[in-house]
Amino acid sequence: MYSVEFDTNIIKGVEPIDIDLLNPHEKIIKKKKTRLTKFIKSFDEYYIISSILCCHKTHVIIDGHHRYFALKELGFKKVPVTKIDYSSDLISTGVGGNGIPKDEIISKGVSNELFEPKSTQHLIYCSRSKAWHPIILLSTMFKIDTKN
Questions:
Q1: What's the rounded Cα separation, in Å, for the pair 54 and 91?
Q2: What's the pLDDT tens digit per position in 6-52?
Q3: How far is it, in rounded angstroms, from Cα 74 to Cα 68?
Q4: Per the domain annotation, does 41 fall within a domain?
């Protein structure tokens, strides 16, 4: 169940995938990643984490850069991912469509030329509220083993 109503065809898969298949498009705030890494390491057995959202065709990360880099630093080989149809008109890159164009975001991700931290914003359209909401609401919760 999701807290927003949306076309469920946007979700193309929810699964752990090889971390090396993912392509970030933004740099991160190192302090934020360091805090998240320490926080995850502080759990003795497992941690519950939101899945990383990525384009199902290119594996470019749409949401979850800090989670990605923290899990990579911790040595995770597989990470929880929700693959989405990034081409959907129900996904926006800014309020009123005023964000960076999706094709530019994909280009950055596949070329490893990263935008500055927090340069992009992604939103999902909720058919119930008729409003745009943060795309992280499409994430799924996963249990990850912290005994690595």
A1: 12
A2: 999 999 999 999 999 999 999 999 999 999 999 999 998 999 999 99
A3: 10
A4: yes
Q: If residue 107 lies in a helix (H) or strand (E), which one and from where to where?
A: helix 102-111
Is 53 inside a domain boundary? Answer: yes
Residue 2 placed within a domain: no
Structure pTM? 0.93
- Among 96, 67, 72, 97, which Cα is nearest to 82's? 67
Q: Which domain CATH number covers 123?
A: 3.90.1530.10
CA nearest to 70, candidates 112, 106, 42, 45: 42
**For tokens 């989670």, what's the residue?**
67
Check: CB of residue 55 under 8 Å from CB of residue 83: yes
Q: Assess if residue 24 is contained within a domain.
A: yes
Residue 112 is predicted with a pLDDT of: 84
Task: Count the domains in the chain.
Answer: 1
Give the domain range for residue 132: 8-145
Q: What amino acid positions are annotated as catalytic residues? A: 26
